[in-house]
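Exercise 7b. Backbone tokens:
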């Protein structure tokens, strides 16, 4: 693999940048592999990378129906944090944050991880109680999170309006995770694809899985795709909003609902916004990209759908909230908006593990908040696919928890979980 370094940039520039290699091989599918990953988003690509790097399983293909990173990975607002309420969740997301911290070096690819701080605003007594509970629980779990007064919130994020006389929901304080932040979403997909490909993984684009084949005792033996039949004894499904559709090919039903979730960006402006701000109560979240666009996240639609396009009233509602929190943005124009399909579980925590079908594994249910987990999710899922057993970190995130009532109820804890 061609390595990126300051020296390489200068040397290539002297050669008019003509001989940069392709970042990864655009592979054609082989007849068989040791493992298949269905879905070329960040989680699927990370799984393939760690399968090759940590478990020596390199005869692997990532099958992607469109282009890699074209799903939710390339559509999200890139918020990274680990200050979830329950210990199981905090451990999982903290595992990811620790990997984010060294990811650019590990992949030799700049994923632009920027720990600029994520501040979650409290607007009523209930919010204050919930966020303070999070702060205490996180500290016990060794995860950084701190309570700020409204004035301290304003000092951390000067554009924030804390003048209670101008707001429906005044800012009463906030929880700040300083190590939280953002990363560049498509660079994450490309960085993992490049590093996995260099170790022998086939990245197969325009290859939709249309059926999962099973042998005599029900175990998986391969898949049918739009590019032919492929054999494999192990299959990991990481298809986000399309998980229910793919898993139904093996007669596995999951407690998932799929909803459109939208985001929008403004015209680019000079750096004005130093951190990430989230408000669950009036529902808006915002940061500024390195290009200068304000990156704004809205809520899910109230109804299930596979349209990748959300309702206009949802985006309008979010912009109302943004203008209330940051009145100086009222005159900015929005440049574009889009939607993704998120896969939501009843307790708003993911499912990562084995399924009732031997050889078939699933990683899904990340809902509105899985980007932040990408490296950790890939890391523990690779362990699960390689060994057939969950890593201790993903052991609680089984399908059976919905049968046994051992929920990890981040839905009740936070209402939203970006
Ligand atoms: C608007 C929006 C904002 C968000 N904001 C945040 C945020 O700020 N922070 C955060 O942490 N998370 C956020 N999320 C959630 C986050 O984007 C996802 O949880 C995460 O990216 C999921 O990654 P993935 O790799 O599992 O899925 P994806 O990137 O969607 O990858 C799944 C892939 O599977 C492929 N696929 C599906 N069916 C098949 C098939 N039959 N055959 C082959 N391939 C198939 C799809 O084409 C897709 O590329 C947001 C999501 C959206 C939509």
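Sequence design result:
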């Amino acid at each position: 693999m061609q390595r990126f370094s300051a020296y390489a940039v200068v040397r290539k520039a002297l050669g008019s940048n003509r001989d940069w290699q392709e970042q990864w091989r655009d592979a054609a599918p082989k007849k068989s592999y040791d493992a298949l990953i269905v879905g070329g988003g960040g989680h699927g690509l990370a799984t393939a990378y760690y399968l090759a790097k940590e478990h020596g399983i390199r005869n692997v293909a990532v099958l992607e129906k469109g282009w890699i990173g074209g799903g939710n990975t390339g559509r999200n607002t890139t918020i990274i944090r680990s200050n979830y309420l329950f210990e199981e969740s905090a451990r999982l997301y903290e595992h990811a944050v620790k990997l984010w911290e060294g990811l650019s070096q590990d992949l030799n690819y700049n994923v632009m991880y920027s720990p600029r701080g994520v501040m979650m605003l409290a607007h009523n007594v209930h919010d204050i109680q919930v966020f303070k509970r999070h702060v205490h629980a996180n500290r016990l779990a060794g995860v950084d999170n701190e309570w700020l007064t409204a004035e301290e919130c304003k000092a951390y994020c000067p554009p924030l309006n804390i003048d209670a006389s101008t707001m429906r929901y005044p800012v009463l304080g906030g929880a700040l995770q300083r190590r939280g932040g953002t990363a560049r979403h498509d660079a994450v997909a490309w960085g993992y694809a490049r590093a996995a490909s260099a170790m022998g993984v086939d990245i197969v684009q325009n290859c939709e899985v249309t059926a999962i084949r099973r042998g005599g005792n029900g175990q998986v033996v391969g898949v049918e795709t739009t590019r032919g039949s492929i054999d494999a004894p192990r299959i990991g499904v990481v298809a986000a909003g399309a998980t229910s559709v793919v898993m139904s090919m093996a007669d596995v039903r999951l407690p998932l609902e799929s909803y459109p979730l939208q985001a929008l960006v403004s015209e680019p402006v000079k750096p004005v916004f130093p951190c990430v701000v989230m408000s669950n109560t009036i529902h808006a979240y915002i940061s500024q990209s390195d290009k200068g666009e304000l990156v704004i996240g809205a809520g899910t639609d109230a109804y299930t759908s596979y349209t990748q396009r959300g309702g206009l009233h949802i985006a309008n509602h979010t912009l109302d909230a943004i203008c209330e929190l940051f009145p100086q943005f009222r005159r900015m124009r929005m440049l574009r908006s889009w939607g993704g399909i998120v896969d939501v579980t009843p307790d708003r925590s993911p499912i990562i593990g084995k399924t009732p079908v031997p050889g078939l594994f699933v990683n899904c249910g990340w809902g509105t908040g899985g980007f932040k987990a990408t490296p950790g999710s890939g890391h523990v899922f690779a362990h699960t696919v390689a060994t057939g057993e969950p890593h201790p970190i993903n052991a609680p995130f089984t399908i059976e928890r919905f049968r046994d009532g051992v929920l990890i109820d981040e839905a009740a804890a936070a209402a939203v979980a970006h």
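Instructor comment: The two ends are 34 Å apart (CA to CA). The mean pLDDT is 96.
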